[in-house]
Amino acid sequence: MARISSDSINAVRDAADMATEVGRYTDLKRNGAQMMGLCPFHDERSPSFSVDPQDKLYHCFGCGVAGDIFGFVMEKEGLTFAESVEALADRYGVELQREQEDPRAEARRQARQRLQQLLERAAAYYSNYLWESREAAKARDYLAGRGLAEGTLRDFGVGFAPSAWDKILVAGQRAGFTVPEMHSVGLVQRSRQGQEYDRFRARIMFPIRDARGRVLGFGGRATRDDQKPKYVNTSETDFFHKSEILYGLDRARAAMAKENRALVVEGYTDVLALHQAGLAGAVGVMGTAITPDQVKTLSGVVDEVILALDADEAGQEAMLRAQRVAGGRRMRLRVASMPKGVDPAELMAEADGAERFRGYARDAAELTDFQVTRVLDRTDTASPVERDQALAEIAPILAAMEEGASQSELVRKVADRLDLEPAMVMGRVVAATPATGGPGLSNGPEERRPAPSAPSQPAPAQRPAELTSRERRERALLAMCIALPEPGADYLERLGESHLSRSGQAAAEFIRAHPKDPAEHLPRENGALAALVTELVMMAREEPASEEAMELNFLLLDQRRLEDEIAAAGERGDYERRARLSRERAALVERIAHAQRVGS
Fold this sequence. Notes:
By secondary structure, the chain is of the alpha+beta class. It is 53% helix and 11% strand.
């Protein structure tokens, strides 16, 4: 794909509001020219996350993460750099220009954009039809009966598909789209007789969007008792892969990130009802079990997922696969025990429904504990056959866990309930652990190690190591070189490799290449360097700088250089060089003392 032009990137940076973007994930308060809040990348009680709203930068003094507005969107939304630019351009109404690209690649990009427009137009058509047509009156009554307000329905773009067989087919063609294009996004299909017709007819329509809010497909709910099946989704297309998608993610992501928790439910109306009740971190899986792909998506946003699903027999194996993926990504899966036969949407319709749901979520059991207890509760422990069947079913669940106290505790629980020796239970667990090299998700040892994150997903923030005195001094000097670029250019030339740490050398080299605007050319291919340069730019904005302070910091770094060289000469037995360097150090100490007197 062609690169977005530099002018477009700058236009997006200028238009985007840094405080708004960060404010989706943490509350910010003004602190002089900066804004401060709790870090959205690690748990903390005292705010250490600093945002520069003017230069569109962020830096956490607690965990060390730093970057510009594009980097923030990349990390929080799991996007590439180009995708982050596109997402912000969409939000702030900036038209992107691209550099010249291969004609075939340009044609593919334009074709995909055109199909995206087709899906957006279809979503708007269905939405308008729900509110404006007499035919949709029954659908409006049904949705109102579920306790869903018009504002919520409009916010999520809920619509209605006409019962006529060709409304979308005709409307799409009138708008200039071809029948093959409508086929490719799942809006129309062909009968056995070769006739084209609308895939969705006489159904309540739920647009299904990606994390950026772009329509990928639809879910359609029947409005008549004789209408089968009850739900119809868009067929698998280049846009739509049901097992990868979470309904409502575009609306829920910010709330999920703030709470570091996702609420996962089954249906569209469940998601709508929870959001309407203020539980905005809810997403839907469009089925009875969460999939490994959905777990991967959530792992880029939260550390904990609470499942409010119908854990029927069909969903147990899928839950087990998801558990393995969650374990590899260090994510906690819990299960909320909902009242039997009551879904979240029905619960929200009750006066105290929202509070009761919060209670179920608060008391949610660990997924493995829930699964094991469920098997044990339905087992006749007086029957040797049933006990053996239960153990056979439980062993893979326990094998998917990491070895440790939690696994040992469940082994003891199973042994007590089935009247077996813990060693026997553990033996079955070991036997159920998949061997190395198996295909797909059954590859046990791979699943028991942390799975590598996708390139677009940030690794969990790590608290930075304590800086050495040289690193603190070199960062102070480099920040002043940014704040005072004219004298800074001289110091950047005087600084050699022996003055600086490895990271300091890289930062100095980058600032030499971009003396006027280092924040606008962050090295995105090198995350550590980009974070360090961002930190230096923000230090330059926040901390006082003077040529006297620059000179003192340089002299102190030069002293450290001399001391290193003196020590190295002594180790080599080069006493003549050591003596000469020691005389240089003595003269340098005099200069440092003078500089300190001038600066005081």
